[in-house]
Amino acid sequence: MLLLIATATDLGTGKVRNRLICLGLFTGTLFQIWEFGLWGLFLSAVQILFPVIVLFLLFLMHALGAGDIKLFSVIGCIWNLKFLCYCMFFSFLTGAVFSLGKLLYQRNLIARLMYFCRYVKNSLENKKLGVYDRQSDGKQNTICFTTAILTGFCIAMGVIM
Length: 161
Known about the structure:
Layout: H1 2-13, H2 18-36, H3 38-60, H4 66-78, H5 81-106, H6 109-126, H7 145-160
């Protein structure tokens, strides 16, 4: 339910509300403590921090929003690290399919691939990550990644269960 609300909010406003994230983190931490006692507090902290650490580089590049990363943290906090990894894998796979479809529909796949190659070349030459300019030609090239997270979550549920 939380993912559905987050996706609907993100589609409508372009943001995932922090109140929703806090509710998910609070609930997940309570679940972990209820199941594992004080050890659950440590587990929830690890499962909250895992997506932040793993995805921080994408956030610095502006390739992924903070709300998306926090949503992964909520999933990790409520479920477990194994499920979170499955969910992240399927979310990024789904996101890649959504992005490819959008680029093909917009007929700018080649232009965006060329821009990506220039970005990588400049980053390597300057030994510094710059901001990946995904909006140079408007928002037409962006996807609402919470839809990919929701889809990845559903796929992971089918794989794990």
